[in-house]
Amino acid sequence: MSIVECEVPSSSTLDRRVVESAYFRDAYRAPVHHADASVVDIFFSIFGHQPLWMKMVLIVRNQLATFGGLDVPPASDILNPVIKSSYAVGDKIGPWPIFALSETELVAGRNNKHLDFRLSVLKEAREHVDSVVISTICTVNNRYGKVYLFFIVPFHRWGVKRLMAKAISEDRL
Q: What stretches in the chain show pLDDT beneath 70?
């Protein structure tokens, strides 16, 4: 099984009404070969291994976003994410605050005046196969959020799939 685009799973803690009404949503499923990996381990196996050029693009994007009044993480959160021994709701994982955390799902994201987003890392066992579903939902709060997503969505889709594929090829998942 490779990376497959799918629906946001109904087993996710993401609010179904928010998922259904989101301006943008996507989800990608990939196999997990390390069955003992926690959702935090899976998060870092995917998002903790961004190439330097991708980190630099995110930093530049964040600098531009601040001109629009968006709340962005410091560059240090992108360049050198801190990996803690344990996490709880309210902590930051990488550049994002954690909104929900269980044995099977981690939900992080950010609320901004232009848009709110959530990233879900959901570990599932379906038909005796462990997999992870990475879901992103964005709710826009004004037209600037729509403009921002117009430019970002193509890079987001490509980037998430690339990071997942790299995690698989380097046997981190």
A: 1
